[in-house]
Amino acid sequence: MLHPARLWKPLKDGKVQCRLCSHFCIIDEQEHGKCGVRQNVDGQLMTKTYELVAALNVDPVEKKPLYHFLPGTETFSLGTQGCNFGCTFCQNASLSQHPKTGREITGQKVTPEILVEATIAHKCDSISYTYSEPTIFFELMQDTARLAHIKGLKNIMVSNGFQSPDCIEELTGLIDAANIDLKAFNDVFYRDTCGGRLNPVLDNLKHMKTNGWWVEVTTLLIPGKNDSPDELKEMAAFIANELGKEVPWHISRFHPDYKMQDCPVTPMEALQRARKAGTNAGLEYVYIGNIPGNESSATFCPDCHKELIKRFGFEMTKTGLSDGMCKYCGCKINGVF
Ligand code: SF4
């Protein structure tokens, strides 16, 4: 079912320009944008993902991953088919790349009201727009997020961070927390491996922080692709200096997937080297992900260095946190607790 899209403008000869993400696609009549879910129908831009949700689950908020936003709570999580990127290592390609194959978009029929009611019925504190790329189901996210706030729920976005500046502005005041992928710190990787660009992601991260969102950053470390010492040093310096030392950085282990089957699993030493680059840059919370039981998934007090939150997979226990403060030395721990 088609639904009127937002954030676009008409051009000459029946063309339109979509202004939702930093691709700014110019779309001929009856054609689709790069994401495959927005179509120019007789000079009007329409979205195909307003009411068809392809994944719907109750997840621990730690799975997003968000470690400093309402830890230990559950979040009602949803995603449609489609993505504005085409990462060759995508771990969710059957969902994200489906519309680009020309096949019909499928999913469970929902409305913002149904999603918010289900969130309350499942006793979740928040709704997460996740799994594929929420930018491309912006209209559903915006309407659901508005209703969620009215009902006292929080909104979480898990994204590649490639929105247009206008899109970020439209979501400001609605999104409470975001986990944004910083996939590499070089534009060639973004262009050749993801079909995107680095600079809009960096600008958007700064924009989100300025606008008061709680932001955590995730990097999937791929051997030989985005893990050189210089690149990691620059990436860590950007997070620490441009976003803030309090921004948590999640470094995740890569497993071969989709079109990138020729790369090995990330060795533990490489993950530890990346973590060291983060702490050397002054970052206060650097986590290693995708390795259950690893002690680098725990939160330590940046002042007295005592363990405050222990994690195993997506399970957590609060050992040393009281009202968002370290109970050993009284240091305020950054986040929403
Ligand atoms: S959301 Fe991005 S990829 Fe999709 S049509 Fe709009 S500008 Fe293009």
From TrEMBL:
Keyword entries, A-Z: 4Fe-4S, Iron, Iron-sulfur, Metal-binding, S-adenosyl-L-methionine
Residues annotated to bind [4Fe-4S] cluster: 83, 87, 90
Pfam families: Radical_SAM
Keyword GTP-binding: no
Cofactor(s) needed: [4Fe-4S] cluster
Limits of the Radical SAM core domain: 68-284
Cofactor remark: Binds 1 [4Fe-4S] cluster. The cluster is coordinated with 3 cysteines and an exchangeable S-adenosyl-L-methionine.
InterPro entries documented for this protein: Aldolase_TIM, AmmeMemoSam_rS, Organic_radical-activating, Pyrv-formate_lyase-activ_prd, rSAM, rSAM_sf
Molecular functions per Gene Ontology: 4 iron, 4 sulfur cluster binding; catalytic activity; metal ion binding
CDD domains reported for this sequence: Radical_SAM
Domain of life per record: Bacteria
Classification via NCBIfam families: AmmeMemoSam_rS
Protein name (Swiss-Prot/TrEMBL): Radical SAM domain protein
